[in-house]
């Protein structure tokens, strides 16, 4: 693989003692994305999306460990968190859900945008300032030098998010990881921020991995979708195919719950009954069985494995039946 991002059999476990590893919480997750493309990780709260993203950063919380391989471009695969952390700020950029957590409240934002590349000696001071000014102009700021004098408490949420993106893309990373980057923004800014992220990805031939609970929004900006449920990949494939012909009952339910323009104002938006089980919970069969409308006894006793159904990967014993019901 000469470019892009390749993730193979990524799993996340609770750390056990030296003799026995803890149970698998998340995974396995595998995908390959070429430069200039976006991968969307979607699912409800508790699906494990953010833990997958943190594993790709090498920043899992204490008490967790990853296994599997993460390959950036033609580099040798990284197999542990320490190797991935070493890539942060150089080959891997991060856009956080709350942009204000990316800033030091006691320093002007201009110095913070250039800090990463200067510390790693990736640019001279003059080059870093010029590059930062150019990025901030791309983010819609007409006076980047004046903007750089402001402190984080003087920024609106939309301003902070756009500046945080500029900070993340300063070193032109090969991989950009975004955790719910638009959840705190209004509808207009949400689209604007996603367009800015997409613009960087195309210009730099980078890969964007974006986490969101909003399937409809992510699908509009992604080439690939990975649907997570309680720590397991239940369906993955191209965005267009998954939206048009979802094979898993959970994916179908997520799509049904997505608000649509022109929806009859008197009709209640569907919801999925029940809640997502914890990824730590031991379940013999399909983890979605308790909420599935077409569940069978086999679903309750035998965990489905990912298999190919009509060009997509799906973990469902009844994928063909689900697809026929949808069509």
Explain what this protein looks like in three dimensions.
The chain has 327 residues and is α/β, with parallel strands linked by helices. The protein has one domain (5-238): 3-Layer(aba) Sandwich (Rossmann fold), CATH 3.40.50.300. It has helices at residues 49-57, 81-85, 109-119, 125-138, 144-147, 157-169, 187-204, 215-221, 239-244, 249-256, 297-301, 319-326; strands at 5-14, 24-33, 37-42, 64-72, 92-95, 175-179, 207-212, 224-229, 232-238, 307-309, 312-314. The strands form 2 sheets. Strands 5-6-7-3-8-9-11-10 form an 8-stranded mixed β-sheet, with helices on both faces. It has a 3-stranded antiparallel β-sheet with strand order 2-1-4, with helices on one face. Strand 10 (307-309) and strand 11 (312-314) form a beta hairpin. Helix 3 packs across helix 4 (125-138). The chain is globular, with a radius of gyration of 21 Å. The chain starts with a strand and ends with a helix. The model has no long low-confidence stretch (mean pLDDT 90).
Q: Keywords, please?
A:
327 residues; alpha/beta; 33% helix; 3-stranded antiparallel β-sheet; 8-stranded mixed β-sheet; 11 strands; Rossmann fold
Helix content: 25-40%
Largest sheet strand order: 5-6-7-3-8-9-11-10
Unreliable spans are none
Total strands: 11
What's the helix and strand layout?
Elements: E1 5-14, E2 24-33, E3 37-42, H1 49-57, E4 64-72, H2 81-85, E5 92-95, H3 109-119, H4 125-138, H5 144-147, H6 157-169, E6 175-179, H7 187-204, E7 207-212, H8 215-221, E8 224-229, E9 232-238, H9 239-244, H10 249-256, H11 297-301, E10 307-309, E11 312-314, H12 319-326
Parallel strand pairs: 3-7, 3-8, 5-6, 6-7
Antiparallel strand pairs: 1-2, 1-4, 8-9, 9-11, 10-11
Helix pairs in contact: 3-4, 3-6, 6-7
């Amino acid at each position: 693989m000469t470019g892009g991002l390749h993730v193979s059999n990524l799993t996340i476990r609770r750390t056990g003692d030296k003799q026995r590893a803890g149970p698998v919480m998340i995974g396995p997750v595998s995908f390959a994305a070429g430069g200039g493309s976006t991968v969307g990780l979607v699912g409800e709260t508790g699906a494990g999306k953010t833990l997958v993203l943190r594993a790709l950063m090498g920043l899992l919380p204490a008490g967790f460990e990853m296994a599997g391989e993460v390959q950036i471009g033609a580099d040798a695969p990284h197999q542990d968190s320490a190797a991935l952390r070493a890539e942060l700020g150089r080959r891997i950029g991060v856009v956080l859900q709350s942009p204000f957590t990316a800033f030091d409240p006691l320093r002007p934002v201009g110095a913070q945008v250039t800090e990463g590349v200067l510390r790693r000696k990736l640019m001279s001071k003059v080059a870093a300032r010029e590059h930062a000014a150019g990025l901030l102009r791309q983010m819609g700021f007409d006076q980047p030098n004046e903007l750089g004098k402001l402190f984080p408490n003087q920024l609106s949420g939309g301003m902070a998010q756009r500046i945080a993106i500029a900070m993340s893309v300063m070193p032109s990373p090969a991989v950009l990881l975004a955790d719910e980057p638009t959840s705190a923004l209004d509808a207009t800014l949400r689209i604007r921020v996603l367009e800015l992220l997409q613009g960087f990805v195309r210009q730099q031939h980078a890969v964007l991995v974006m986490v969101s609970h909003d399937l409809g929004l992510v699908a509009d900006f992604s080439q690939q979708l990975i649907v997570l449920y309680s720590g397991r990949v239940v369906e993955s494939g191209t965005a267009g195919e998954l939206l048009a012909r979802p094979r898993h009952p959970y994916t179908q339910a997520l799509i049904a719950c997505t608000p649509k323009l022109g929806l009859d104002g008197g009709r209640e938006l569907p919801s999925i009954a029940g809640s997502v089980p914890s990824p730590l919970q031991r379940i013999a069969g399909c983890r979605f069985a308790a909420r599935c409308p077409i569940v069978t006894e086999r679903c309750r006793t035998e965990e489905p494995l990912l298999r190919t159904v009509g060009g997509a990967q799906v973990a469902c014993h009844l994928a063909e039946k689900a697809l026929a019901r949808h069509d």
